[in-house]
């Protein structure tokens, strides 16, 4: 690896950003000429959060004097593998990757290792390979705990209230985060299932029964429609554990089409994650009840710092070396803290922090 710090310092002031569409369908960001190029491979443009991630990572790397090649895999694991292979062939200096399928990149990462290209797993851990150097994410179990705590508080479970009907949704089976979110939530919900203050009327409580391929909202909507048709003809659903805002919006559509959301039949408590604009607006409107805010500006900042440190032969700042084992090794990680957002604190957490403006939330 090269020592670029002096060169970077010299060019940082003069760096200018130009965006062009690259041959692999991504965006090329030009900073100074000597900082090196970092490939950034993200899963999808269909969800607002990944657009924010892409923009923030590119800006942060540009500020450090790097060029970037940003590509989106459009939720197609094969397309992402080709994109990463192409970035390796182009000779990028480092890779920052949020995988679509946590195991499909092993072959590509072998090529990266052979070419001496360091790899940072971004938000989602890549499994089954030694060729991933660092991981940057949030405390993913805590995300699930925050969702469960919201349900526990809203239903008054600690005060002994119940029984209430709850249905459980999980994320994509090929995303390593899915089981962390689910385990974190179930750790806190299980005692209430055991005491029957919470009842899952569908009986679907195992992770493999409740996943949502590629975190797709319409897929979740379809499953919720089925549950309402089959299980809730005479019963009412009081809470839905949803792991992600896009899924929550799909669940809400199903509920509304079945008559929920009126004075006689209020919407259940519905959690979420990512503080996406549509969901924050939904929370303000009294529909979705909660989301988990993960400041993506921080995530991007840590990833950019990590890449810069690696390329300057420094060990990046880490705060967790054990929790994230990818099946081959414990990947050294930096984990950020997620925060629970509902109608009582969104202004403070999302507006005062500059994540959204008041106008955006109108
Ligand atoms: C997960 C991520 C969540 C959410 C989800 C769907 O990997 O940790 O924050 O964005 O993907 O995109």
What does this entry show, briefly?
The protein has twelve helices and 14 strands. The chain is α/β, with parallel strands linked by helices. It folds into two domains: 19-132 and 295-337, Response regulator (Rossmann fold, 3-Layer(aba) Sandwich), CATH 3.40.50; 140-293, 3-Layer(aba) Sandwich (Rossmann fold).
Molecular structure report:
The protein is of the alpha/beta class and 362 residues long. It has two domains: 19-132 and 295-337, 3-Layer(aba) Sandwich (Rossmann fold), CATH 3.40.50.2300; 140-293, Response regulator (Rossmann fold, 3-Layer(aba) Sandwich), CATH 3.40.50. Helices cover 40% and strands 15% of the residues. The protein has twelve helices and 14 strands. It has helices spanning 5-12, 48-63, 77-90, 106-114, 140-155, 177-194, 207-210, 217-231, 245-257, 277-284, 296-311, 346-351, and strands at 19-21, 27-29, 37-42, 67-72, 94-97, 119-122, 134-138, 164-168, 198-199, 239-241, 269-270, 291-293, 333-336, 339-341. The strands form three sheets. The protein has an eight-stranded mixed β-sheet with strand order 1-2-4-3-5-6-7-13, with helices on both faces. A four-stranded parallel β-sheet has the order 9-8-10-11, sandwiched between helices. Strand 10 (239-241), helix 9 and strand 11 (269-270) form a beta-alpha-beta unit. Helix 3 runs parallel beside helix 4. The relative contact order is 0.13.
